[in-house]
Amino acid sequence: MIRLLAGTVALVAARGCGDNHTLAQAELTDEQLAMLDKLADVIIPPDDTPGGAQLGTRAYVAQLVAAFDVTGAPAIYCDGPFSDRNPFPDLATGLPTQSFPDSDFARFAELDRVTFESWQLFVLGGDGPNGTIVGLRDQLVAGLNAAIATASSPAGSLTAKQAQFVFDALPADFQSLLIDLVTEAAFSAPEYGGNPELAGWQLVHFEGDSLPLGYSVFNGLVYVERPQHPLSTANPGADPDPITSDVDSLLKTVVSVLGGRLG
Amino acid sequence: MTRATVLGNTSLAAFDTIVIGSGAGGGPVAYVLATNGKKVLVLEAGPNHLDGLDSPDAPPTPRFSNDELKIERRNFIEVQASVEPRTWRTTTSDGDRIDALTGNVQALPKTVGGGCLHADLKMPRFEPTDFQFGSLLDVPGATFADWPVQYDELEPFYAWGERLLGVQGLAGANPFEGPRSSDYPMPPGAPMYGGLLVGAGLASLGYTMFPYPTAVNSVPYAGRPACNDCGFCSGYPCPTNAKGSTAVTMLRAALLSGNCQLRAETRAVKLLANGAGSAITGVSCIGPAGDVETYTADTYVLAASPIEDARLLLLSDPSLGNSSGLVGRNLMFHYQTISLGIFPERVHGYRGRTVAHGFADFRGKPNDPTRPLGGITEISGGGFPIGEAAFYKRVLNMLSSESWNGALFKQLMRQSPGRDRVMVLVIQAEDAPQATNRVDLDPAIVDLDGLPVPRVTYQNHAFEVGTGQFYEPKLLDVLIASGCKYAMIAPRDALPGSQHVMGTLRGGTSATSSVTDPNGRFWDVGNLFASDGAIFPTSSGYNPTMTIVAMALRVAAAMVNPASPASVITPGGVMAARAR
Question: Is the CB of residue A166 less than 8 Å from the CB of residue A27?
Fold first, then answer.
């Protein structure tokens, strides 16, 4: 077994961990990691915007499977209440100030007895109260090895079409796990390892955590909203990604299947 | 920072009352008793994430955050179902359980503050007739019963609870609400764009939208800030203390009184009783490190949620408090009918309080076939991208399981019909109580401490299934009239969607037909009370938390002054009580 890329580990350590962490590397081979990248790109294909691999699946998975390889609090829950992405509001105008909080997301919250046991079982596996639980690490190794065995060539050289074939041949449970991991990586707070430079949130036009700024400020008399991010009125400007014919067709199918109605 | 497990007056060693559970049922009891000079110990199974909850200097610093992964996917305040599962079956004909449904079965958050923390604290009162369905309804197979306390008697406690929590709303805006002795303590907050669009649709159909009563500060109140509509509200504990949960209001005041101690991560596992089972003599617990601890007091209050209350009794002694045979029975959830309306434009429902408005036209009337008894309807915004991705995964798998369509999935995520363009209408409908819907102990499945887990046996009655079918097309009418391009009813899952859990220790006026008396005291056990949703005889069609709080205040007031519970009510809010 070889270690994850050093750069990935450094990225994880810099983003999500306090000084008391000594992140060990996940025990995935280069080939398994390359396959993880390929499958992530099946789930969210790259085009002129990032795909699943570029949205940080590898780093996210690395942080999660190494969550208990630390000396401090396991890397499961970023602490709160605030990240340092948004400033405090001006209480008179409701607009952003230049004053930002320290990031509480930069450290992890301690786990109580029950939560520690639960997450250790999830990640590492072992004897649960009602039988043996296969941990995430082992599920990934087994699933990625199955994918490698299915592939016609080394993961790094698979075309998108070949990777799709590999993905579709995987057991449904492992497909589901991968979709969950890739989307968690892409759309969770970057302190968990994925969503690099907020690329995942930008991809889907999501504004992320909003505190301590929020979307309205009661200034003592009235509510003041942020003009570019209104609460009670329509967004200004054009829709960044209007509904396409593909999505329209899908939604009409869903409405038909569920016995809904079209406006 | 190390998380505190003992809060409040840590030097207290002798107690008048032990309260098991620190949520909407436990916090008010601790508050009333502690501020009336009683020494109170609160036992909470979950951890405390409100740093400084017992500090007089400022409101606590929550460890909660705008973090979807932490709160919704990784269950920061919810139960960890892999080591604390529950089991489920619809009837005994399913066998011991439906194995595929073992896991999180209607569990409420396990943390200091309980279910009051994850809620967006929608706080409507019940209607006066909701307390009278034993007299008003005759539904075969259902066990509708009158409440032992009627609206008029509860009204002062509703008003007191609204003051203590800080509830925003507009008196009279819901045309079906009961009489009020006072206005809401604060006006409605900022509206949401999507809600206003639905409001126009409702008005065109003759329905009446109103600002949803919520325990969320619309103005600074009792030392806590106004809500700034961060958006992470329903399902999310509040990072700013703008939500007036019982934790940051009443429980905090109790802890600051000098008369209250709270032990977090301390799980009650057995009530110790005298030989006759007529009095509780102690409570055995598993503490933060897994050690067994025993605490004693003169009186004991169950407020750990209806399912856990019943489980604790059954773990202790199946006959304890159970001469009626009703412990664990008449379990209820609200019957949710969920409709989704997708607008052509982005309505950014992830900004704001999740639910700012609602309407009660689908609550219905007893015995009126043209308006069957449904429930209040919440007008809700969409969620967040990880949940949105899971929704599309389900849709794509439903339509084609052959091959994952990543390109279409990406288009869905970017165009966001399921988050940025959606408004959701949810009816919280009356659930007919049934004696066969119950909690008992699973015969084989255990938790991490080796204790049998709760088993839920539950299936819906034709009563609520019929009302859901009645109102489904009307929900679609509203969505289309509001300008939605696509409108649909969400398929029902095998488990109820509602986390409104009620019943199991039914209150009543007779020891043969109820478990607890009108003051929440067990008929069979003189020093044991219940104060959460467990004592509800029926579910109403309104969110239950305000009524849980009002009933808990009344239970505690009756413990202080059994002859005149209302005399215990104080005129001010929490800060006034502290000053006193």
Answer: no
- Residue B147 structure tokens: 């409440």
Residues in contact with A149: Cβ distance below 8 Å, sequence separation at least 6, in sequence order: none
Average model confidence (pLDDT) across chain A: 90
CB contact residues (below 8 A), chain B span 199-218, against chain A: 218
Residues 6+ apart with CB under 8 A from B100: none
For residue B138 the two structure tokens come to 């005759």
B8 or B57, which is more confident? B8
Instruction: Inform me whether the pLDDT recorded for B1 exceeds 70.
Output: no
Instruction: State chain B's maximal CA–CA distance in angstroms.
Output: 69
Does the beta carbon of A132 lie under 8 angstroms from any beta carbon of chain B? no
Min CA distance, B395 vs chain A (Å)? 8
The predicted model scores a pTM of: 0.96
DSSP character string of B44-104: -SSPP-EETTT-SSS--EE---S-HIIIIIS-SSS--TTTS-BEEESSGGG-S--GGG-B-
Residue B402: pLDDT band by 50, 70, 90 thresholds? confident
| Integer Cα distance of B249 and B59 in angstroms | 9
Residues 4-33 of A with CB under 8 A from B: none
Predicted local confidence at residue A91, as pLDDT: 84
Nearest-angstrom CA–CA distance, B230 and A88? 12
Check residue B575 and give its pLDDT: 58
Chain A residues with CB inside 8 Å of B398's CB? 257
Q: In this predicted complex, what is the ipTM?
A: 0.95
| Rounded-to-integer distance, Cα B359 and Cα B481, Å | 15
DSSP-derived 3-state class of residue B94: helix
Give Cβ neighbours of residue A256 (< 8 Å, ≥ 6 apart).
none
Token pair recorded at residue B219: 């103005």
Chain A environment of B3 (Cβ under 8 Å): 110, 112
Q: Residue B455: phi, psi to the nearest 5?
A: -115, 125
Euclidean distance between the first and the last CA atom of chain B, given in angstroms as a whole number: 33
